[in-house]
Amino acid sequence: MTDKTGRRLSISFEFFPPATPEGAMRLWRSVERLAPLAPDYVSVTYGAGGTTRDRTRNAIKAILERARLQVAGHLTCVGATRAETLAEADGYRRLGARRIVALRGDPPRGAERFEPHPDGFRNAAELTRALREAGHDRISVAAYPEFHPESASPAADLDNLKRKLDAGADSAITQFFFDNAHFLRFRDLAAKAGIDAPIHPGILPIENFAKMKRFAAGCGASVPESLETAYANADEQGMTETLSRAICAEQCDALRSEGVEHIHFYTLNNPDLPYDVCRALGVEPQPLGAAAGGAA
Ligand code: FAD
Question: What is the DSSP string of 244-275?
Fold first, then answer.
C-alpha cells in the first residue's frame, strides 16, 4: 500500500503453531483479525529441536485452507537428517506454502551449543543452498542488527548473512530490536559488505514487558533504559497497552522515514497490537476476498 505521503509499505506477520485447542482458537482469531490487512505473507515458526514439526505443518495447512494468504513455513536444521529436512520443505510446498524461512535453529533446551545431526545441515547457509537446489526459490533468512550471540565478531556475522544470501536466499528478516539505530547501522554495514538483498526489520509489539525482557535476554536484543522507566510508570497507571501501541507505531514510522518498505511483525498470536499499529501506519483493511500480497 502507499500512504498519503506516497510512502510504500508492505507487511507480514509471524505466528507460532498452537499446542492446545485453546491455542488453536487464538491462532485462528489472530489470522482472522490480521488477514484483512492484506499482508504479503504470514509465517509459521518451527519449534526448538523440531518439537513442533507436525504442529507447524498443521498450522500452515489450516491457514492455507481457511484464509487467502501466502504462507512461509519456518524450517530449522535441528534434530533431523538432510533428507528429513528437505522432505519437510517439500511437504510445505505440497500444501501450497510458497515461501520458506530457513534457519539453523537454537540448541535444544539444556544444551549449551548447537550440535548438528550427524547427517544434518550444519547451518542456515547449507540449508538454504540445498533448498535452492531442490527448487525452492522464495527463501528468507535471519539477520541480527545487534549481531548473533554466537558470532565471533560483527564482521563474521555479516559474512554469514552474505553466505546465506549467496546460497540463494532472497531476503532477510531481522531479530527484533527497539532502538532503530541498531537496524540502521546494520543496514549500512550490510550495504558496505555488498549485501543488496532486502533486509526486513522484525518488530515485536510489546504485549507483556516482563515476558519481552526474557525473550530479549535469550536472543541478545537490548532493551533501552527508557523503556524500563516508561513501562514502570505506565504499569502503575494501567496504561501499558496505550504505551505499547504508541512506542511500536512510532518505531515503525521512524523506520519508514528511513526508507523501510516492509515490516515483519512478531505477533506471538496476539493480533490486537499489530493490528492497531498497522492501522496507525495507514494500512487499511481490505474487503473480504481481496487478494493477499499487499493492497494498493
Ligand atoms: P546461522 O545463520 O546458521 O548462524 C548461526 C551462528 O553460527 C551465527 O553466529 C553465525 O555467525 C555462525 N555461523 C554460521 N555459519 C558459520 C560458518 N560457516 N563459519 C563461522 N560461523 C558461522 N528458531 C527456531 O528454532 N524456530 C524458528 O521458527 C525461528 N524463527 C526465527 C525467525 C527469525 C526472523 C529470526 C531472526 C530467528 C528465528 N529463530 C528461530 C532463531 C534462530 O534459529 C536462532 O537465532 C539461531 O541461533 C541461529 O539461526 P540462524 O539461522 O541465524 O543460524
Answer: HHHHHHHHHHHHHHTT--EEEEE-TT--HHHH
CA distance 64 to 53: 17
Q: How far is the CA of 62 from the centre of ligand 1 (A)?
A: 27
Does 14 participate in catalysis according to the annotation?
A: yes
Q: What is the Cα–Cα distance from 228 to 243, expressed in whole angstroms?
A: 12
pLDDT, tens digit, for every residue of 222-257?
999 999 999 999 988 889 999 999 999 999 999 999
**Domain residue ranges of the chain, discontinuous segments joined by +:** 10-290
Architecture of domain 10-290: Alpha-Beta Barrel (3.20)
The neighbouring-strand residues paired with 238 are none
Contact 175, 222 (CB under 8 A): no
Ligand 1, closest atom to CA 16?
A: 28
Whether this model's ipTM surpasses 0.95 comes out as yes
Q: Is the CB of 150 under 6 A from ligand 1?
A: yes
Q: 162: which residues sit within 8 A by CB, 6+ positions away?
A: 193, 194, 195
Between the two ends of the chain, the Cα-to-Cα distance in Å is 4
Q: Is the minimum distance from the CB of 74 to ligand 1 under 6 angstroms? A: yes
Give the position of cell 548447537.
114
Atom of ligand 1 nearest to the CA of 143: 36
Q: pTM for the complete prediction?
A: 0.96
Instruction: For residue 199, count CB atoms less than 10 angstroms from its CB and return exposed for 0-12, middle for 13-18, buried for 19 or more.
Output: buried
User: Contact 14/267 with Cβ under 8 angstroms?
Assistant: yes
